[in-house]
Amino acid sequence: MLNAQKIRKDFPILSREVNGKPLVYLDNAATSQTPQQVIEVIVDYYSSYNANIHRGVHFLSQEATDKYEQARQKIQRHFNASKAKEIIFTSGTTHGINLVANGFSSLLQKGDEILVSAMEHHSNIVPWQMLAERTGAILKVIPMNEQGELMMNEYRNLLSSNTKLVFCNHVSNALGTINPIATIIDEAHKVGAAVLIDGAQAAPHIKADVQALNVDFYTVSAHKMCGPTGVGVLYGKEEWLNKLPPYQGGGEMIAEVTFEKTTYADLPHKFEAGTPNICGGIAFGAALDYLNSIGFSEMEAYEHELLDYATNKLLEIEGLKIYGTAQEKTSVISFNIEGVHPYDIGTILDKLGIAVRTGHHCAQPIMDFYKIPGTVRASFSFYNTKEEVDILVEGVKRAKNMLL
Ligand SMILES: *Cc1c(COP(=O)(O)O)cnc(C)c1O
């Protein structure tokens, strides 16, 4: 079993105090904390080999290039992509989705259909709405049920030869639902549609195998996986990445430039215009090393135990309702207390040193579905403990007493 007390020593921030109380960090679905092992890689980059990549003949540039490309290979191995050039460095999930949505502008026609799930983060809705506006494609929604599970029969009924693209998150950030993406991908492929999976919320908990899933695009953000902000990757099948036009023009993404015509660089550079987040990419590789050293199945088992423990304890509080009760879910609990605004609970918890998220969690359609303004969301990582769950539960009770 995973030893959370020992693991916590890797995270300097976890020993700080907030409002005079020991920090209880339960906002991991928004961003994860960074272990010393990754912080050291960041310090080392700026202390010893900061240089621009792919361009310089000089020593430091070569060293930075090597480390950056090694990180790409680490990420390739982690997600089991067949080729390193199928791993495109981005600034994060949002960037990856926009890159694909923009690319499809030239591949869609009026009347083509694109399907989105009812439980998406805004970053997996808005770029597609913009795409639909540009192309005249029709955006349709795969509905969900009261438990926060996608209605797979409805999904099958929506699919047709008009469907060109399906996009869905692997795990919902607002509900924690783990979607049956293998089935979603298979069914879409049967009608010839491509699939983009937003893996931002799954990647910290589940090791996706992009070849086994046969997914066309998969996007993640490093900052939810113990890495730094401002970096992520888009995995894309080579054939799809070759079909899509470049997203941004600039340095690094070209083969040859004249004022008459520019030819583009090969993958992955075609999609990597400008100086990337070099340090971030290298640190992302280190974060994957760190997570793998703990082990995904160990993390999953431990987080599930925390989830069950917290769910049972919270449900003992009268008037507390949990949104997102899917059979398959990660360690996210979205809840409200009858008659109390989520923001007020969050504010009181903050005074007690407990960091949770309140609001619509960038997933307003889910809140509309439940007819609520938002929820309080506690999201647990492998470095959280049962003692912290107890502190949360006591805090929620206290907030309830103060507010009702
Ligand atoms: C966090 C998150 C995003 C957005 O990620 P960024 O790092 O902000 O680009 C998208 N989808 C889901 C499911 C998320 O949890």
Automatic annotation (TrEMBL):
MF annotations from Gene Ontology: cysteine desulfurase activity; pyridoxal phosphate binding
SUPFAM superfamilies membership: PLP-dependent transferases
Superkingdom of source: Bacteria
Residue intervals of the Aminotransferase class V domain: 24-392
Enzyme class of the recorded protein, top EC level: transferase
Coiled coil: none
GO biological process, one term: cysteine metabolic process
The EC number(s) this enzyme carries: 2.8.1.7
Record keywords, A-Z: Pyridoxal phosphate, Transferase
InterPro entries with a match to the protein in the record: Aminotrans_V_dom (IPR000192), Aminotrans_V_PyrdxlP_BS (IPR020578), Cys_dSase_SufS (IPR010970), Cysteine_dSase (IPR016454), PyrdxlP-dep_Trfase (IPR015424), PyrdxlP-dep_Trfase_major (IPR015421), PyrdxlP-dep_Trfase_small (IPR015422)
Cofactor: pyridoxal 5'-phosphate
Pfam families recorded: Aminotran_5
Reactions mediated catalytically: (sulfur carrier)-H + L-cysteine = (sulfur carrier)-SH + L-alanine
Family from the record: Belongs to the class-V pyridoxal-phosphate-dependent aminotransferase family. Csd subfamily.
Protein purpose: Catalyzes the removal of elemental sulfur and selenium atoms from L-cysteine, L-cystine, L-selenocysteine, and L-selenocystine to produce L-alanine.
Protein name: Cysteine desulfurase
Species of origin: Euzebyella marina
Taxonomic lineage from the root: Bacteria, Pseudomonadati, Bacteroidota, Flavobacteriia, Flavobacteriales
